[in-house]
Design a protein that fits this description.
Glutathione S-transferase Yfyf (Class Pi), Chain A, domain 2, mainly alpha
Length: 112
């Protein structure tokens, strides 16, 4: 959240919290989803982190995760987003991004 709502040096310092995402990366070792071969409750619970993270990256230009630093998490997110029921239930990327931009504007206005 700090990487999303702050600017400059403070933003980059907050983005270093991405190291905590490595815990999730370890949970994917040897399997495509957190629960094994198919999507589970944990995948759904964690899914918002990946979706929100991608929006944050696009809006504020801070790298939270990518295929180089977190290949298992990135591969999982791509599979998760293509899972039929998830794909069917999520709003379009444009709508999600626009909503997140509005939220970002409110947060950054409050901090200045």
């Amino acid at each position: 959240m700090g990487a999303f709502s702050s600017k400059g040096e403070e933003q980059e310092k907050a983005a270093k919290a991405r190291e905590h995402l490595r815990t999730l990366e370890k949970g994917l070792e040897g399997k495509p989803f957190f629960g094994g071969e198919t999507i589970s409750f944990l995948d759904i619970a964690v899914g918002w982190i990946g979706i929100w993270g991608r929006a944050v990256e696009e809006i504020v230009g801070v790298n939270l995760f990518d295929a180089e630093t977190m290949p298992l998490f990135t591969a999982w997110l791509n599979k998760f987003l293509e899972f039929p029921i998830i794909k069917e239930c999520l709003p379009s990327w444009d709508i999600l991004l626009e909503h997140t931009k509005g939220f970002h504007k409110i947060l950054t206005a409050a901090s200045t």
